[in-house]
Structures are given as structure tokens and as C-alpha cells.
Design a protein that fits this description.
Belongs to the short-chain dehydrogenases/reductases (SDR) family. This is Similar to 3-oxoacyl-[acyl-carrier-protein] reductase FabG acc. no. Q9X248. It comes from Pyronema omphalodes (strain CBS 100304) (Pyronema confluens). Keywords: NADP, Oxidoreductase. The structure is a single chain. Helices cover about 40% and strands about 15% of the residues. It is an alpha/beta fold. It has a single domain, classed as NAD(P)-binding Rossmann-like Domain (Rossmann fold), CATH 3.40.50.720. Helix 2 runs parallel beside helix 3, helix 4 packs parallel to helix 5 and helix 5 runs parallel beside helix 8.
Length: about 290
């Protein structure tokens, strides 16, 4: 134990002149826009080499260009995260980018496909469960050879959940179930890979954050999966209250950048003794 603590302390410092994630290689899924893009850019600014994984190649490449424009290192991997072939490419590119080392994985990719319980189809159910639970599981499993190491290097997994998973939400039986499921997966990773390998695993559960999933559905955001268009957002008629934030003490939604900063915190040495935790980021909603 003493030797292991010495190794860990050797990788840590109370100051971080080269960035909180210096010399680390990170995978971020759904990194072409929104929270994922802000996380990728922020990780790069803190010294990480970043794999920008997204369904949309053009958007992923745009994020890579932004990172490289400021001197950072990144590579784009485009493809459906629900495909094993995409997962394998992500892992291979990460290992290549990091010289055989991978330190962090942020399972952020996701969207909603809402419907009231009695009208939710099997396809809606399976798609959302596969996207938010099976795909993160498969990616983490594929990363096992790079995470189950006793070299004392910092390694962490951050899975993105939602307050819908913690409390349920009308019209989101599939999404709520999946987002609760990812919390169970996170805790299991912490218990299995923490003792021998020091891997930390945490979940961040977002409330209202300004993304395409929370904007008005009438604005026309959509995602295409298997040739089928899925409309994203919340119908204007369902927006809560005059401002939508009467139950949020801060009286506003969070920004994608604010969301990204909480992911950075969990990935960084600032959370070196935090594992198996679900961090609610809600502006105080639910207290």
C-alpha cells in the first residue's frame, strides 16, 4: 500500500502549471457539440490529449480544429457509439494518441426519444437503453487493458446521467431507466477496478443545462439513427412556469461550459479521493 501511495503522489501536485490533466489521454463521446464539445476543449486546455468521438464527423472535426488552434492535441473519431466497430476505433485511436496510455473516459453521448409510457415502442426503449447503458459498458470493457494497470497513473471514468434518472420524469420511461442504470454501472466499476488498480468512477447528473435536448422542440433539432429522424427538445407548451426555472434557486439553466467544468473537476486531481459518487448539477433544484 505504501508503494502504491508513493506512486500516486508522484503523479500529483498541489499546483498544476501544465494543467490539471497534463500528459493524460482522454476519450469524450458525444463531443461534437454541447456539453461534450465544451468538455473536450476544456480538457485540452488543461493539458489532455483528447479523442473527440461523435456521430457527426464534421462537428467532431470542427472541435478538433478549435483544440489544435490553441496548441492542443486531439483526434476525431466519427461513428455510431452503439456500434462495436466505432468503439474499437475510439479505443485504438486513443491508444495511438496516448502512446499506448489512456487515462480518462467520459461517456457523454446521448439523446432523448420521449413518449408517454403506454405509447413508448420497443424500438424507443431499446435505442435509449442501448445508447445510455450498453454503449458505455462496451466502451469501458474495451478499455480494460488500458485501465487495469498497476502503474499508479491517474485513471478515471465519468458517466453522464440526469436528474431524470434520479427522480423519474413523465414521458421519459426509457431515458429515466437508462440514466439510473448508468449510475449502477458506475458504482460497480468503482468497486471492481478501484481496489487493485486505483481507477475512479463517478457520475454527474445534470438538471437543466442549455443544450439541444432542453431547447424548444419547435426549433427543429433532430438526430438521425438508422435512417430514422428523432426530434429533440421539449415542446414549448411543456416548458415550466414563466421562466422555466421557478424551482431552481439560481433561477436559470446551466451552460454547457458550466456542465463541462464539473466533469473536469471529477476527472482531475481535485477529486483524487472521490469515487462511486453521483454529483447532482442542478443550480440547487431538488433541495
Amino acid at each position: 500500500m505504501a508503494d502504491r501511495l508513493a506512486q500516486i503522489q508522484g503523479h500529483m501536485s498541489t499546483s498544476f502549471p501544465r494543467g490539471l490533466l497534463a500528459d493524460q489521454t482522454a476519450i469524450i463521446t458525444g463531443a461534437g457539440q454541447g456539453i461534450g464539445a465544451e468538455t473536450a476543449i476544456l480538457f485540452a486546455k488543461e493539458g489532455a490529449r483528447v479523442v473527440v468521438a461523435d456521430l457527426d464527423e464534421a462537428k467532431a472535426q470542427d472541435v478538433v480544429k478549435k483544440i489544435e488552434a490553441t496548441g492542443g492535441k486531439a483526434v476525431a473519431v466519427a461513428g455510431d457509439i452503439m456500434s462495436q466497430e466505432t468503439i474499437d476505433r475510439i479505443v485504438n485511436e486513443a491508444a495511438k494518441l496516448g502512446g499506448g496510455k489512456v487515462h480518462c473516459c467520459v461517456n457523454n453521448a446521448g439523446f432523448t426519444w420521449d413518449g408517454v409510457l403506454h405509447k413508448t415502442t420497443d424500438k424507443q426503449w431499446d435505442t435509449i437503453l442501448n445508447l445510455h447503458c450498453r454503449a458505455p459498458f462496451q466502451l469501458v470493457r474495451a478499455l480494460a487493458p488500458y485501465f487495469r494497470l498497476k502503474d499508479g497513473a491517474p485513471r478515471s471514468i465519468i458517466n453522464v446521467s440526469s436528474t431524470s434518472g434520479l427522480h423519474g420524469n413523465a414521458g421519459q420511461a426509457n431515458y429515466a431507466t437508462a440514466k439510473m442504470g448508468i449510475i449502477g454501472l458506475t458504482k460497480t466499476i468503482a468497486k471492481e477496478w478501484g481496489p487493485a488498480f486505483g481507477v475512479r468512477a463517478n457520475t454527474v447528473a445534470f438538471g437543466s443545462v442549455l443544450t439541444r435536448l432542453t431547447q424548444e422542440k419547435e426549433l427543429g433539432a433532430e438526430v438521425v439513427v438508422g435512417g430514422e429522424k428523432i426530434a429533440l427538445g421539449i415542446p414549448k407548451a411543456m416548458q415550466k412556469g414563466a421562466t422555466g426555472f421557478e424551482n431552481v434557486p439560481l433561477r436559470r439553466a446551466g451552460t454547457a461550459n458550466e456542465a463541462a467544468m464539473t466533469i473536469l473537476m471529477l476527472a482531475s486531481p481535485l477529486s483524487a479521493y472521490v469515487s462511486g459518487h453521483t454529483l447532482e448539477v442542478t443550480g440547487g433544484a431538488g433541495i
